[in-house]
UniProtKB/TrEMBL annotation:
<dbReference type="GO" id="GO:0005739">
    <property type="term" value="C:mitochondrion"/>
</dbReference>
<dbReference type="GO" id="GO:0008531">
    <property type="term" value="F:riboflavin kinase activity"/>
</dbReference>
<dbReference type="InterPro" id="IPR015865">
    <property type="entry name" value="Riboflavin_kinase_bac/euk"/>
</dbReference>
<dbReference type="GO" id="GO:0005524">
    <property type="term" value="F:ATP binding"/>
</dbReference>
<dbReference type="GO" id="GO:0009231">
    <property type="term" value="P:riboflavin biosynthetic process"/>
</dbReference>
<comment type="function">
    <text>Catalyzes the phosphorylation of riboflavin (vitamin B2) to form flavin-mononucleotide (FMN), hence rate-limiting enzyme in the synthesis of FAD. Essential for TNF-induced reactive oxygen species (ROS) production. Through its interaction with both TNFRSF1A and CYBA, physically and functionally couples TNFRSF1A to NADPH oxidase. TNF-activation of RFK may enhance the incorporation of FAD in NADPH oxidase, a critical step for the assembly and activation of NADPH oxidase.</text>
</comment>
<keyword id="KW-0067">ATP-binding</keyword>
<keyword id="KW-0285">Flavoprotein</keyword>
<dbReference type="GO" id="GO:0046872">
    <property type="term" value="F:metal ion binding"/>
</dbReference>
<feature type="domain" description="Riboflavin kinase">
    <location>
        <begin position="2"/>
        <end position="132"/>
    </location>
</feature>
<keyword id="KW-0808">Transferase</keyword>
<dbReference type="Pfam" id="PF01687">
    <property type="entry name" value="Flavokinase"/>
</dbReference>
<dbReference type="InterPro" id="IPR023465">
    <property type="entry name" value="Riboflavin_kinase_dom_sf"/>
</dbReference>
<keyword id="KW-0862">Zinc</keyword>
<protein>
    <recommendedName>
        <fullName>Riboflavin kinase</fullName>
        <ecNumber>2.7.1.26</ecNumber>
    </recommendedName>
</protein>
<dbReference type="InterPro" id="IPR023468">
    <property type="entry name" value="Riboflavin_kinase"/>
</dbReference>
<keyword id="KW-0547">Nucleotide-binding</keyword>
Length: 156
């Protein structure tokens, strides 16, 4: 799972299925199909942590899911970023820059929405702890997050 990490990626935030914030209280910014298809095809599905920045805003901690969502029996692969920050407004259409730093766990099926939500809360806590480690904090300051606006560059 770690072979492709750290993985740098930038792309537009598009509309997903509206399931993140509405049902779970945990919004996930979805990348376009084009960006998803630019990922290494052999990157493991599951839950990851890393850093994220919207436009040229501040860099925040994030958790990210790659792959099929078993809970919703998705027919599509998705890459969805939950930024650990409270935003005043939605940011559809903006450029999201992320660096995927580490892997947390594979995808799982959950018996209930409550079980899914508590797993995500644990993922968020794990992400926060991991990203405070000096070797991971370093990536928050990476030049990748300070490139000129308007350029879409995948994987550097
Ligand atoms: P969709 O199915 O369209 O992705 P979601 O319910 O997952 O809908 O909500 C995602 C949207 O919420 C993002 O595209 C973004 O505009 C907004 N949003 C607000 N706060 C956050 C956040 N902390 N992390 C991710 N997205 C957020
Ligand atoms: Mg979403």
């Amino acid at each position: 799972a770690m072979r492709h990490l750290p993985y740098f990626c930038r792309g537009e935030v598009v509309k997903g299925f509206g399931r993140g914030s509405k049902e779970l209280g945990i919004p996930t910014a979805n990348f376009s199909e084009q960006v998803v298809e630019s990922f290494p095809p052999d990157i493991s599905t599951g839950i990851y942590y890393g850093w994220a920045c919207v436009g040229n805003g501040d860099v925040h901690k994030m958790v990210l899911s790659i792959g099929w969502n078993p809970f919703y029996r998705n027919t599509k692969k998705s890459v969805e970023t939950h930024i650990i920050h409270t935003f005043k407004e939605d940011f559809y259409g903006e450029i999201l820059s992320i660096v995927i730093v580490g892997y947390i766990r594979p995808e799982k099926n959950f018996d209930s929405l409550e079980a899914l939500i508590s797993a995500i809360q644990e993922d968020i806590e794990e992400a926060k702890r991991q990203l405070d480690l000096p070797e991971h904090l370093k990536l928050k300051e990476d030049n990748f997050f300070h490139l000129p606006e308007g350029k879409i560059v995948n994987n550097h």
